[in-house]
Amino acid sequence: MNASPTETLLDLRGLTCPMPVLKANRALRDMPPGAKLRILATDRASVADFQSYCRETGHALIAFTDTAGVLSFMIRRRAETSPS
To answer: DSSP per residue over 9-30, as a string?
Structure first.
């Protein structure tokens, strides 16, 4: 489901840890470098989970909001690294 031509929306409301991060990871793998993924979640643990996930993977957490219990994360996929 696309939110705009440059942003993909992933609605993960109702899922609990670790499912939001696992599903986001799967979606990001199929996206081109620099593409943006907006994730909607309701699990409060997602806040720390996505911060850690982005720190560990090199993706950028560029926005986060909490509106009436719906958490919205915007992640920009990292640039590809050259194979070792």
So the answer is: EEE-TT--TTHHHHHHHHHHHT
